[in-house]
Amino acid sequence: MNAARASFADQTLPNWRRAVLKVGSSLLAAEGEGLSPRHALNLAQFVAASQAEGREVVIVSSGAVAAGRGLLHRQATAGAAMAERQALAALGQAQLIGLWQRFFSHPVAQVLLTHDDLRNRRRYLNARATLMELLQLGAIPVVNENDTVSVDELKLGDNDNLAAIVAALVDADALFIATDIDGFYSANPRTDADAQPIDEVEALTPAFFAMAGGAGSGVGTGGMRTKLEAAAKAGAAGIETFLFNGTRADTLARLARGTLNGTRFRAAQNRLAARKYWLSHVPLEPGRILVDAGAARAMGEKGASLLPGGVLGAEGDFRRGDMVEVVAKGEGGERRVARGVSQYSAADIRRIAGRHSRDIEAVLGYNYGENVIHRDDLVLL
Question: What are the binding positions for ATP in this chain (predicted)?
């Protein structure tokens, strides 16, 4: 890289509570075969320092296929059959989780997701609930695409975009993308000596995508373009993206202290506004949840979740994960008060209506949490 080229300016990170850290194969793959802890250690130290500050981090990590190749002492080949890549991923997943676990005193949890898990609303909610519970337990979720069962036409395709989806899934405040160059440039810095660093991107226009090149290494599946796609997806959900060089220990040490040396992609709006907009515009399913005046007041005045104790009943035949209307019933008649994503089906709600949250499992034989609608999945009308 040209030594005279301008460097990225230091920027103060906004305060964040929960983040997704995406780590690509190029940072984990050994030069010969298998995985190397060389860069993973510094990345893990950033995660540990963040946890010590009371923050939560979900890692989206590539590297399973490279780890599988290392076990079999097999070199990467272009155009490898889908079944071969799936088999290598299956062999390498345990190695990948083992690599991360060696750096943490907290337990590491493996979470494998597919396109169908994120397209199907009920499975999406189950994945969200699992990740939230893992964070509540103090564990470090390590997410990867479930390559062993994915098919070409339904693959998420790259972990940059998966990381953006996971960031929205867990209501993250920030998406950190660790790569093997210092940030986003006006051209490919490996081939263009005139490439200039871009410290901040207010809005991702087609001109920025035109600057992005292809994949930077033979190990990963994503290049700079997929990182811009991820930043655009995250930005639409109100999440800012921070791109930096994960091979540099000094960059990661500064990141842990709240300073970015790389590129900041701003979100179009704040995270809460983006989620509330989505909740306000998702089509409603036929059916309603009927609540008493106390529940309506708690949601409206205190921002509370909807608990079964305040529910009078349910109308229709909606399913868990559907967007439904919440209607208050009282002496003055009915009043629309909210809409939200129901954690339970209409049939389940009719059975637990008026009961205490602790009774849900005794009544149904299972439970999806104490809330009928969580406050994060609810918008007032």
Answer: 22, 179-180, 221-227
pLDDT digits (tens, 9 = 90+) for 212-231: 865 555 444 448 899 999 99
Q: Are 89 and 68 in contact (CB under 8 A)?
A: yes
Residue 310 is assigned to a ligand binding site: no
Q: Is 180 annotated as a binding residue?
A: yes
| pLDDT tens digits for range 230-257 | 999 899 889 999 999 999 999 999 999 9
Residue at token pair 């930077």? 216
- For the record, the structure tokens of 40 come out as 């993973």
Of 188-192, 197-201, 316-320, 372-376, the range with the lowest mean pLDDT is 188-192
224 labelled ligand-binding: yes
Query: Does the annotation list 147 as a binding residue?
Result: yes
In whole angstroms, what is the distance from residue 322 CA to residue 339 CA?
Answer: 10
97-105: list long-range contacts, CB under 8 Å, 24+ apart. Answer: 97/142, 99/28, 99/35, 99/37, 99/40, 99/63, 99/67, 100/40, 100/44, 100/59, 100/61, 100/140, 100/142, 102/37, 103/37, 103/40, 103/41, 103/44, 103/45, 103/48, 104/44, 104/47, 104/48, 104/140
Distance CA 335, CA 326 (A): 9
Cα 138 from Cα 107, distance rounded (Å): 8
Please report, for the chain, the start and end positions of each structural domain, with discontinuous segments joined by +.
10-274, 282-380
Annotated ligand binding at 159? The verdict is: yes
Tell me: is residue 179 an annotated ligand-binding position. Answer: yes
- Whether 221 has a binding-site annotation, put simply, is yes
* 282-380 is classed CATH 3.30.420.340: no
| Distance, CA of 350 to chain centre | 33
CATH topology match: 10-274 vs 282-380: no
Q: Is 77 annotated as a binding residue?
A: no
Confidence tier at 71 by pLDDT (50, 70, 90):
confident
CATH pick for 10-274 out of 3.40.1160.10, 2.60.410.10, 3.40.630.30, 3.40.109.10: 3.40.1160.10
